[in-house]
C-alpha cells in the first residue's frame, strides 16, 4: 500500500520562497549595476553570476535571461521596489487621482514622475542604446513607450474630467505633451549630463507641465 504523500511544511515553504526572492534580488542588483556600467552587450550572464556570487545556472533559475533581467530592472527602478504593483496603482498615485484641483494634480504628478525618472533614467539609457541592435530589446523599448503613453493618457483624462485643461487643449494633445515630459531621457539629459540638481529638475518639470496643461 502506498504511503500518503508527505504534507508540505508551510514554514519551510515560506523560507524557500524568501530565499528565492533574496537570490533574485541579488541577481537583479548585479545585473542592473553591470548593465549601467558596461552596457547591455557588454554584460554577460557569467559576469552577472560572478557579481551576484551565484552560479550561472542560478541566474537563469532565479531570474532569467538578459532580456528579462533588463526589463525587470527597468520595472523595478520605475516603482522603486520589488512589489508587483504598477506606479499608477500605488498609494501616492491613488491620492493623486482623488484630487480635484488641476494645479494640485499636476504638482503631485510632477513629484511622482520626477522621483520615478530619477530611479530609472540610467537603466533606461541602456535600453535606448541596445534597442537599435537587439530585436528583443527593441520590442522592450516599444513596450516602454506604450506604457508611458498609457500613463500620460490617464493623467490627461483626469485633468479633462476635472475641467482643468487649458482652453483649446484636447485630452489627446495633452496626453502627447505629457508623454514627451515623462521620457526619462529628459532627466538623463538635464541631471545626468547637464548636472542639474534633482530639486531643480522637479521644480522645472512642475512649472513646465503646469504651463503646458493647466488653464
UniProtKB/TrEMBL annotation:
- Keyword Cytoplasm tagged: no
Keywords for this protein: DNA-binding, Transcription, Transcription regulation
Q: Read off the InterPro entries from this record.
A: Homeodomain-like_sf, HTH-type_TetR-like_transc_reg, HTH_TetR
Q: Which residues bind DNA?
A: 44-63
Q: What Pfam families does UniProt report for this protein, alphabetically? A: TetR_N (PF00440)
- Phylogenetic lineage: Bacteria, Bacillati, Actinomycetota, Actinomycetes, Mycobacteriales
GO molecular function of the protein, one example?
A: transcription cis-regulatory region binding
PANTHER family attached here?
Answer: HTH-TYPE TRANSCRIPTIONAL REGULATOR BETI, HTH-TYPE TRANSCRIPTIONAL REGULATOR RUTR
**Is DNA-binding among the key words of this record?**
yes
Q: Which PROSITE patterns does this one have?
A: HTH_TETR_2
Give start and end of each HTH tetR-type domain: 21-81
| Protein name per its UniProtKB record | DNA-binding protein
